[in-house]
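Possible regression after last week's pipeline update?

I re-ran a chain I had predicted before the update to compare outputs. Posting the input and the new output here so someone can diff against the archived version. Not blocking, just want to make sure nothing changed silently.
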Amino acid sequence: MSTDGEVSRNTQGERKSYTDLSTKPSFGHSGWTAPKYQYGFQVPTDYAHALRIDKENGNNKWETAIALEMNQLDEYKTFIDRGKFTSTSIPKGFKQINVHLVFAVKHDGRHKARMVAGGHLTDVPLNSVYAGVVSLRGLRMCIFIAELNNMEAYATDIGNAYLEACTQEKVCIKAGPEFKERSGHLLIIHKALYGCLLYTSPSPRD
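New output (post-update):
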């Protein structure tokens, strides 16, 4: 049986922590950082790390998650490809920012990858920073009215609705290896990314 701080392998050959399935401690910015785990699966820190984990475990769970995310971004036409990136290829008035993949494991074992942008790299807007969520009081009121009037209540979720919004700010990226054949290309951000709230005007809620 594993003792505190030990890591063992599960039946699928993936490393599992029995003491902390979320986040391991970090030993300073320049020191060694222990792996992060969620529900017994090691969570990568970047694209290359994800591929290494897949190779070590003999599967392609993270690669599949990345491919699904990248295909969705293509479907939404999030980026406009302007060809090979050079120091002079950034259009006038555009600002280069960074994007990166973040990873998570859902409670049912599904591996998820999400492309996010560095929102700290742009100026804070004076408006359009609203992100509304339903309050518990509002939810209770809806249920109360439905029950009072013998009505049926339905709920729905629009997948990735935020990503449908077009950006008004002029921002671009240099594509990384996760973009496959477009790696090294100049990509204009045309649709919203998570972390892009500060880049969109009006707010994606509109």
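Follow-up from reviewer: compared with the archived run. Residues 1-31, 198-206 have pLDDT under 50 and may be disordered. Marking as no regression found.
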